[in-house]
Amino acid sequence: MDLKEIQALIKFVAKSGAQEVSLETEDFKINIKTGSEAGEQPTYIQAVAPQAPVAMPAAPAPAAAPEAAPAAPAADDTSNYITVKSPMIGTFYRSAGPDVDPFVKVGDTIKPGDVLCIVEAMKLFNEIESEVSGKIVKVLVDDQTPIEYDQPLFLVDPS
Questions:
Q1: In this structure, are residues 90 and 146 in contact, taking their beta carbons and an 8 Å threshold?
Q2: In degrees rounded to 5, what are phi and psi of residue 128?
Q3: Banded model confidence at residue 128, pLDDT cuts 50, 70, 90
Q4: Position 67 confidence tier, pLDDT thresholds 50, 70, 90
Q5: Does domain 82-157 have CATH number 2.40.50.100?
Q6: Which of 29, 56, 30 lies closest to 43, judged by CA?
Q7: Which position has the higher pLDDT, 120 or 9?
Q8: In sequence order, which residues have a C-beta less than 8 Å from that of residue 9 and are 6 or more positions away?
Q9: In the chain, what is the straight-line distance between the N-terminal and C-terminal CA atoms, in Å?
């Protein structure tokens, strides 16, 4: 199973509303767990190579639970922030060029209409403008990385 097939499986699971899906073949095992509200909770993926028929899968399952526990407080910490999401699929750029300062940095105050980033899609560079005002708390995507539609890009403190 290649990366594109795994990504397609994740999207399918997220859209279906299923809480957990497990897929096991001779070569690998994938567990996909989603939160109760699709889109607000992260998707966790755990891929392990099976080494024993039944005894080994029981050991990784408890390890996944502690990873989910720290995510819950983080979600509570960001509940008062506005999430700026990508309006399209493409490549995320924080600045207009490699030698140019980013459009926004953590701590910058923004207002509606301010350019936050650029998304390159089909050889076109689209400026993504803010629809909210506030202060940039966190940049959630690395520069020059592929992004998906509705993917969180920035956290903004509206106060």
A1: yes
A2: -100, 115
A3: very high
A4: very low
A5: yes
A6: 30
A7: 120
A8: 21, 23, 30, 32
A9: 46
Secondary structure in 3-state letters for the chain: CCHHHHHHHHHHHHHHCCCEEEEECCCCEEEEECCCCECCECCEEEEECCCCCCHHHHCHHHHHHHHHHHHHHHHHHCCCCEEEECCCCEEEECCCCCCCCCCCCCCCEECCCCEEEEEEECCEEEEEECCCCEEEEEECCCCCEEECCCCEEEEEECC
Question: How much is the pLDDT for 104?
Answer: 95
Region(s) of the chain under CATH 2.40.50.100: 82-157
pLDDT for the residue numbered 20: 78
As a whole number, mean pLDDT of residues 72-83 equals 68
Average pLDDT for 56-79: 50
Contact of 153 with 128, CB cutoff 8 Å: yes
Helical (H) or strand (E) element with 125 = strand 124-129
- Confidence at 42, pLDDT banded by 50, 70, 90: low
8 A C-beta contact, residue 124 and residue 138: no
